[in-house]
Every structure is written in structure tokens, then in C-alpha cells.
Specification:
161 residues; Glutaredoxin
Length: 161
């Protein structure tokens, strides 16, 4: 009887530990541009923006291999408001009183959203992944147009203190 009780207690402990761990798993708290505007009004902070597309292999790889790492999550969460947007979104976005949309979208093509073009194009083109760091006044400090390993991303993000 004691042995069965010990086994049951052990199983209960393992199950409880796994349940607690699952609840405490960290994630980046991605904001929309509308949420960002409210957050910046309450408390100014630097901004990290990730523009992605559904077809971008490197974007998906960053989702799985970089944005899930505890040190990356902590660095972004502590020092930045994080905004994430599908660059091919057809949704209208209102930011600072201006409405942005995807004017290039058609029935045959997704097009690139005006916000992604405004903030994230290089040499007249938008190519994902595109990441930006902006200061508290929403001025662009730097942009990256490539896959960044966690170490490289952390080094880049740490350079804006």
C-alpha cells in the first residue's frame, strides 16, 4: 500500500511540475500598432518591430529558433515594446491619427502593407524578415533585413542603451 501511495505521489508531483512549467513558459508579448500607440502614450519606451510574411522561411525559423529563447524574450520584454505585423496584411491600421492599408493588394497578389513599405523597405523594395528598432519618439534607430541568430539579435538590441 505504501509503495502504491509513493508512486501516486510521484506521478502527482511530476504532473504538477509540468503544469506549472507550462504556465510559466515565457513568450514575447507582441503588440499591434494600435496597442503600441496606447503604450507609448502611457510610458515611452524603445520599440522593436518585426515585419514578416507567411511564406518567409527565415521568418518562420526566427519564430521557432530565436523568438522562443528565454534571453531573447527577456531582452525584448524588458527594454522594448514589441510589435509584430504580417507585411501582407489586408487590415487597415490606425496609428497616430493616420490610416494605413495595403493598397497594393489585389485578388491575385497579396501586396505589401503601406506600414511595412513606409518603415521597412530598402532600396525601394520590401524583403522579409525586416526588423526595426525605434526610439521612444518613434524615430528609426536601425533596421535589419536578414535572419538574425539569437546572439546576433541580442548584440544588436543591446547596442541602443
Amino acid at each position: 500500500m505504501t509503495r502504491v501511495r509513493n508512486i501516486l505521489l510521484t506521478l502527482l508531483l511530476v504532473y504538477s511540475t509540468n503544469a506549472i512549467y507550462a504556465q510559466e513558459r515565457l513568450e514575447i508579448q507582441w503588440l499591434t500598432f494600435e496597442q503600441l500607440e496606447d503604450s507609448l502614450a502611457k510610458q515611452p519606451k524603445k520599440v522593436f518591430i518585426d515585419f514578416y510574411t507567411d511564406w518567409c522561411t527565415y521568418c518562420k525559423k526566427m519564430d521557432k529558433k530565436v523568438f522562443t529563447k528565454t534571453d531573447v524574450i527577456n531582452a525584448i520584454s524588458e527594454d522594448y515594446y514589441a510589435v509584430r505585423m504580417d507585411a501582407e496584411s489586408k487590415d487597415s491600421v490606425t496609428f497616430e491619427g493616420q490610416v494605413f492599408s495595403n493598397r497594393l493588394a489585389s485578388q491575385k497578389r497579396s501586396g505589401i502593407h503601406d506600414l511595412a513599405l513606409l518603415l521597412g523597405q530598402r532600396d525601394g523594395q520590401f524583403v522579409p524578415p525586416t526588423m526595426l528598432v525605434l526610439n521612444e519618439d518613434f524615430k528609426i534607430l536601425d533596421r535589419k533585413f536578414e535572419y538574425l541568430y539569437s546572439e546576433k539579435l541580442l548584440s544588436w538590441l543591446g547596442g541602443f542603451d
